[in-house]
Amino acid sequence: MSTDVERIKAASRGLRGTLSESLAAPLTGAIAPDDTQLSKFHGIYQQDDRDLRLERQHQKLEPAWQFMIRARVPAGVCTADQWLALSQLAREHADGSLRLTTRQAFQLHGVLKRDLKPTIQAINKSLLDTIAACGDVNRNVMASPNPWRSDVHAQVTEAARAISDHLTPATRAYHEIWLDGDKLVGEAEAEPIYGATYLPRKFKIALAVPPENDVDVFAQDLGFIAIVRDGALLGYNVTAGGGMGATHGDPTTYPRLADVLGFCAPDEVVGIAEAVVTIQRDHGNRDERKRARLKYTIDDRGLDWFLGELAERRGRPLKPAAEFVFQRHTDRIGWTRGEDGRWHRSVFVQNGRIAGKQLAALDRIAESHRGPLLLTPNQNLIIASVAEKDRTGINRLLEQGEPDGSPLRQAAMACVAMPTCGLAMAEAERYLPDLIGKVSELFAEVGQADTDTVIRMTGCPNGCARPYLAEIGLVGKAPGKYNLRLGGDGKGQRLNRAWRDNLDEGQILEALGGLIRRWAAERDDDERFGDWTHRHVDFAAP
Ligand code: SRM
Ligand code: SF4
What we know:
Strand content: 15-25%
Number of helices: 17
Largest sheet: 5 strands, antiparallel
Bound molecules: siroheme, iron/sulfur cluster
Number of strands: 20
Helix content: 25-40%
């Protein structure tokens, strides 16, 4: 039996539904329930401020409705003007902060219904958009950032853009509703790739350039790993079937690493993306949304079936996969120099949230530097393509806003969670900085204050900060309670494993303290914490 969302998509006339009427309805700050599903395809989530929920209930008021807007930024490439436009919108129509996401996109939180249209129009004026940032379609395409870093990075960025453009929905509904485009008369326009009901679920693509796996390519529905020899891009290894989301207590749902399928030439990526998307369109589970991702289609039908289907749609199989080596999946904060001699500064952004002094400093840099600012898959930012003579000025401005970050802090990620995420069971972004301070002390006590152990926290098991790939993963279970997972490899190539459930802060620190002391005493040479726990922790013991 197909789900409500399938019914809503089918009846939506190309994602229009009654969105225009919902926006015009004056007596509520909300949109109609069916439109809340369709608005996601336009990059908009209806939310309410959960900090205010109880108080509003007591006052017998409707929830404090507000909206999150997500702007797509393929491969994270943003111009100085786009930065300044988004920053201004954050101040004028949102909560004063810009949120860089774990998929190299922007989010604005706290936008009121009446401000949705002007905000979306301004985003489009800056030549970014929000269509397909959410919904059952291909999402923002990620790539190891920085086309200015090397020729290979530039080619990979171009490939990400080409895939993104090719898989953008064809409907004109977005232009009609938000940009005052002509009104549709009659039937909705055809969607050549997606069809009338789009995909069974969200779909995610990323391109990685070894030795960095910053995009966490194995967490993606579809991935491309650049194969580079002597500085030249030979092609890509293709991966499929990755995903993070799970539901507590339901073993039929689980995080899964993508399989490496084979190798393709650089000019084959768009065709492969279309073929894999259409396999999922035709065979994905439309009856049960929590088992509707490509990872379950592959597990339910088998990898051989999937490879056969892909070969048939492309007219040929993939070539055998090539060797590659990943060394890390986190960012290196600080200056690096590109092949052309220009400089790039990776800036630490705590959990992707930029406000206050840091936002002001970055605005001043965008005004004077005028070069690109790049969003990283680890929620940080790169000020790219800086001339030698401009570095001092940028350093001076950064001093006014960049938070202090030990390697442990810089390697960490937390999802948004409270107060805006309707699915959060526990805090994440607002709490992790505090917890990291305490975990840092545990590492410092054993002489490891400089560790870059990867800690990731989410407010629920959906996995938005990819916690199942962390060396220490903390997954929200209830207010103040987390499941503790251990054993990621610091490269995003191994899933961690559940160790203890439902721990409060005291229990987390006690558990980690014991392990950190043992790791420091027993580890081989410079063995990472995640590798050591993977080898030594008894995951079966209660
Ligand atoms: Fe996510 C749902 C935030 C990356 C897996 N995610 C949500 C929603 C929209 C909650 C909702 O459905 O009501 C969250 C909005 C919170 C808020 O207030 O802003 C949300 N997800 C985020 C972001 C902002 C986290 C962040 O801190 O940066 C990331 C936005 C990415 C983007 O720009 O597109 C974000 N989400 C991810 C990732 C990581 C990735 O894509 O690499 C994952 C795990 C990978 C995956 O998809 O398997 C992820 N989000 C989910 C899921 C679980 C999907 C599943 O297959 O089970 C949900 C829940 C759902 O879809 O029903 C979800
Ligand atoms: Fe919300 Fe859960 Fe995603 Fe965190 S992991 S943003 S709590 S859906």
